[in-house]
Amino acid sequence: MSLPKSLRPCGAYKITVSLLTSALLIPIAAYAQTHVDNPFIGATGYANPDYAKEVDSSIAKVKDADLKAKMRVVKSYPTSVWLDSIDAIYGGSRNAGRLSLQGHLNAALAQKKANTPITVGLVIYDMPGRDCHALASNGELALTPAGLQRYKTEYIDVIAATLANPKYKDLRIVNIIEPDSLPNLVTNQSTPACGQAASTGIYEEGVKYALDKLHAIPNVYNYMDIGHSGWLGWDSNRGPAISLYTRVVQGTIAGLASADGFITNTANYTPLVEPNLPNPDLTVGGQPIRSAKFYQWNRFFDESTYAEALYNGFVAAGWPSKIGFLIDTGRNGWGGKGRPTSASGNDVNTYVDSGRVDKRLHQGNWCNQAGAGIGMPPTTAPGGHIHAYVVGKGPGESDGSSKYIPNKQNKGFDKYCDSTYTTPDGTLTGALPNAPIAGSWFHTQFVQLVTNAYPVIGTQTKTALQSASTGTATAGRPAATKGLTATGADGRVRLSWSSVPGATTYSVQRANEGGAPITVASGLTSPSYVDQALTNGTTYYYKVTADDASGTGAASITVSATPHR
């Protein structure tokens, strides 16, 4: 909802825009830094002071010393800054006392260590007619040509001018581009607002304009939101999504170079890995487990396999092989009491429901999910083609209100945020009750997310954070294996991965159709392996662990390959 003209500080606004825009007149070459393939490597991350204040408010409310300590660890996590309105750029009284964009960038400079890059995460989220398929986070700009013009001149242009200031040349700005916008064009055009977003071309034009303006700044990195596996994982959705994104980005000034990659699971809950369900084609009771009611024939149960499939699809569509993925792990841990460690049952639904760590009532439920926990802490280059695990949405920030709450941000009420609502799929929403409007602090949810974190937040979590950018092993065991890739050939799959410092040997696990994971190789002394005597046309799934005298390190992400002639 636009503010009435009488409430806008028009004079100050015009002066500020003029000053910001002048930064664009400075030659980029005068302050350009090298644009690297993965901005997270060798860098620290910006800890958002606004988020830290929200966490402090929860710390003050709890008495349990262990819970307080875990909250303090989360407070130190780098979390993205949501620029979800024009007012969010300016901060202060215009945005609930939060820092302005310039304020955040200045704070990042203050946090930056000498001779060490720092990443600053921003969420670009003010598309005209935003969130066309839902109601909880409607935006301020109308889905009209006038709304698009405001988006360009009052929002994107001002952000770009701010980021282009040479003062900030040593910051690595990591942008998440317009969550849910293009994914809605893939699946939800039957919703009138999404149909209008598609027919008018406003979503596509908005995304292209944002990429054009932001990519022109050398120290800016753009990652396009691409939903999650429970949204676009099906072949009938994933293929059209790859085609749509490719066409849109090819229409930018720099073409496919405009985007550095993609982010999955933004502000969502889909697990990083489903450890007890590694093979979607495993047969139980005569049916593949991907046919279970929860997955509805979707073969991608988690974000790791989904991201790898997207990578392969985009590269096949002509994207450069250096593109990478981010995964938002802020709320997809699903730990706590009762987290399953195996799967059992004689039919697919029993087997899947017993083994899945994702305890949502339906894979499409997205609002303030009961039982969820914080996932992996921010981690650089964990393996495969993942640039980083990031906290895109700060744990504890509401997805939407449990009932309609009047507000000036034009945020509506979505029934999926009502814990008593039965969805068209016949399940309850799984939403926590008594939630505030989207983006507001939800103390009850934060307590749950910290309590149910997986891995458990503590000293080990902090060590993992500290070792993530250096590649050093966690005390007592080797670091997680990174960089695992799998390539299918005739009757075999070639595996390779990055050497793990301190590791003496490696082990390879494989899952294939009709079988649970088995160890196919151990005692390997080099970071490669060829798995042979395989069946062409069958998809195989692999993980690798590093070993030394102290034990076995954490497993790599799961990758897959299909042998072929």
UniProtKB/TrEMBL annotation:
It comes from Xanthomonas vasicola. Residues 1-32 form the signal peptide. Pfam families: Glyco_hydro_6. Its EC number is 3.2.1.-. Belongs to the glycosyl hydrolase family 6. InterPro entries: Beta_cellobiohydrolase (IPR016288), Beta_cellobiohydrolase_sf (IPR036434), FN3_dom (IPR003961), FN3_sf (IPR036116), Ig-like_fold (IPR013783). The lineage of its organism: Bacteria, Pseudomonadati, Pseudomonadota, Gammaproteobacteria, Lysobacterales. Residues 477-565 form the Fibronectin type-III domain. It is an enzyme of class 3 (hydrolase). GO terms for biological process: cellulose catabolic process. This is Glucanase. GO terms for molecular function: hydrolase activity, acting on glycosyl bonds. Gene3D superfamilies: 1, 4-beta cellobiohydrolase, Immunoglobulins. Keywords: Carbohydrate metabolism, Cellulose degradation, Glycosidase, Hydrolase, Polysaccharide degradation, Signal.
